[in-house]
Amino acid sequence: MTTRPLYLLITIILPLASFFIFWTIFKSGVPTDLPISVYDGDNTQTSRRISRMLDSTSLLDVVQKVTSIDQGKKLMLRGDSYALVVLPKNMEKDILRRQSPEIINFYNNEFLLIGSLINKDITTVIKTVSKGLNLSMRQKQNEMTTAAMAHIEPLSIKKHVLFNPYLNYFYYLTGTLQPTMLQLFIIIMAIFAFGIELKDGTAGELFERANGNLTAIIVGKLLPYSIIYILLGLFMNIYLFRIPGFPFRGNMAVLVLATILFVFAYQAIGVLIISVTANLRMSLSMAGFYSATAFAFGGVTFPAMGMPLFAKIWSSILPLTHYIKVFVDQSIKGVPLSVSIPDLCYLSFFIIAGFTLSCFRMKKILIEPLYWGRS
C-alpha cells in the first residue's frame, strides 16, 4: 500500500476530496437568485408591484425587464434567463372591471428541479397579489374582512411538510452523493487489490504464502482497506451530523452497522467481479458501469416504486439503494429499528453471496498461470 501512490489516492485523498466538493456545492442548502425576465405590457402600478414582488423573493432575480416577448425568448434560449413572465396590456383596467386577465409564465423545464421551483414561486406571488386585490375591492364595498376572506378562499389547505420542511438540497443530496462516491472507491480498490496480483503474475506467490487458504487471502488483502473505508464512512456521517447540522432522529448504532455492511457488500461484489473475469481492466470497466449507475437507480431523484420492472430489479441489486434507505430512515425520518432490518438483511446478503460465489473460482485463477499477466 505504501509503494503505489494510487492506493493512497483511491483510499484517502479522492474520497475526502469528494466529500469537500459536495459540501462546497450544496452548503447553501437552497438555490437563490435564479434569473428571470419580465415583459410589462401594462406598465401600471399593479404590474410594477408584481415585478417588485417577484424580484423580492429569495429564489427569483428579475435580471431584465424586456421590451418584447421575442427578446425574453432569446434570453431563455441563450440560457441567461430561466423564465419569462408576461404581464398583459390593460391588465389593471381588466382587474378594475372585474375581469380575469391572464399572466403568462414561460419557464424552462429542461432543468426539472429549477423549472418546478421557479414555477412554484411565480405562481405563489401571482396568487398572493390576486388575493390582495380581491380583498381590497371587497373591503371598498364595505364587506367585512372575515367574510371577504371566506369568499376569496372558501377552502384552504393546511400543509405539514415532513422530514425536510426547509426544502434543503444539502439534506436531500449530500447525504446520498457522499456514499455514492464512496462505493465507487470501495469496489475499485477491492478489484485492484486482487487484479494487480493477476496482472503482475504474483497470484501464485500469494496463494503459496497463504498455504492455499482462500479465507486468509481474502481477509488479508481486504482488511486494511475495510478499516480505512469504514472509518471514512463513519467520518462522513459524523461530519454531516456535527458540522453542517444534518438532522439525526434515529438510532446511531443501526447507522454504524449499515455503514460497516455497506463497505463489506461492495468489497464482496468487487471480489466476485474480478474472480469471474480474471482481468483487471475488464473488471474495472464492469465495476464502473455497476457503481456509476447506482445513484440514478437508488430511488433518490426518481422513486423506485414508479420505475419499470427492469429498473426496480437493477435498483434492488445495488447495495447503495439499501444503504441510502437506512441512512434516510434513521437520520431524517427517525424510524424504528424494525423498518431498517430488511435493508440490513439485503446488505448482509450481498456480503455472503459475493464472497461465497467468489470462492468457487478464486482458487482457480490464483493457481493457474493461464490467468496471469492479462492486461
Number of helices in the DSSP assignment:
15
How many distinct folded domains?
2
* Low-confidence runs of at least 5 consecutive residues: none
Major beta sheet, specifics?
A: 4 strands, mixed
The level of helicity is 55-70%
User: In what order do the strands lie side by side in the largest sheet?
Assistant: 2-1-3-4
Output the keywords.
375 residues; alpha/beta; four-stranded mixed sheet
Could you please describe the fold and organization of this structure?
There is one protein chain. The mean pLDDT is 90. The two termini are 21 Å apart. The protein is elongated and about 95 Å long. Helices cover 67% and strands 6% of the residues. It folds into 2 domains: 226 residues, no CATH class; 119 residues, abc type-2 transporter like fold. The chain has a 4-stranded mixed β-sheet, with helices on both faces. Helix 9 packs across helix 10. With 375 residues, the protein is of the alpha/beta class. The longest helix has 31 residues. Helix 2 links the parallel strand 1 and strand 2.
Compile the SSE list and pairings.
Blueprint: H1 5-26, E1 34-40, H2 45-56, E2 60-66, H3 69-78, E3 83-87, H4 91-96, E4 104-107, H5 112-140, H6 145-152, H7 169-199, H8 203-209, H9 214-242, H10 252-277, H11 280-292, H12 294-297, H13 309-316, H14 319-333, H15 337-367
Parallel strand pairs: 1-2, 1-3
Antiparallel strand pairs: 3-4
Helix pairs in contact: 1-7, 1-9, 5-6, 7-9, 7-10, 7-11, 7-14, 8-15, 9-10, 10-11, 10-14, 10-15, 14-15
Condensed summary:
The protein has 375 residues and is an alpha/beta fold.
